[in-house]
Amino acid sequence: xxxxxxxxxxxxxxxxxxxxxxxxxxxxxxxxxxxxxxxxxxxxxxxxxxxxxxxxxxxxxxxxxxxxxxxxxxxxxxxxxxxxxxxxxxxxxxxxxxxxxxxxxxxxxxxxxxxxxxxxxxxxxxxxxxxxxxxxxxxxxxxxxxxxxxxxxxxxxxxx
Length: 160
Ligand code: CUA
Hints:
With 160 residues, this protein is of the alpha+beta class. It has one helix and ten strands. The chain has two domains: 34 residues; 113 residues, Cupredoxins -  blue copper proteins (Immunoglobulin-like, Sandwich). Strands 1, 2, 3, 5 and 8 form a five-stranded mixed sheet that branches. Strands 4-10-9-6-7 form a five-stranded mixed sheet, with no helix packed on it. The structure holds dinuclear copper ion.
C-alpha cells in the first residue's frame, strides 16, 4: 500500500494527538483523582431525611480521617439545610450533599466547587478553605419558582 507523504504526516499527527489526549485523561483520572460525582452512592431520596448522615445536616468534626470536618448538606426546593455554616479557616472539609426532591445546583462562589445534586445520588467533594470570608452558595440548576432565592452561606472564620 502506498501512502502519500502528507498522508503519513497527518496520520502521525492524528494518532499522536489521540495518545496525548488519552495520557492527559489518564493522569487526570488516576493520578489526580478527577472523577464524576460519586454516582455509585445511591440513596432513596424520598426517605433521605431518615437516612444517615442526612438525618443530621450540618458541620461535624471527625477524627482519624483525611479531612477535619464533614459537612452534610440537604438541598430541597428552595433552600439548603444548613442555611449557614461557620467553618474554621484552613480546615479540610468533606462536603456530602444530596437533594430530597428535584435537581439542584451547589456552587460555592469564588471557589471551584460546583456540583449538580441529583435525586437519589450523593455528591462528595473534599476541599480546604484557606481564605477567611463569606462564600455564597447558590443553586445554578433551575428548580422552580423559588430557584433564584435558593442559597446558603459559608462563613470561613479564624479559629478562637
Ligand atoms: Cu435549587 Cu435552583
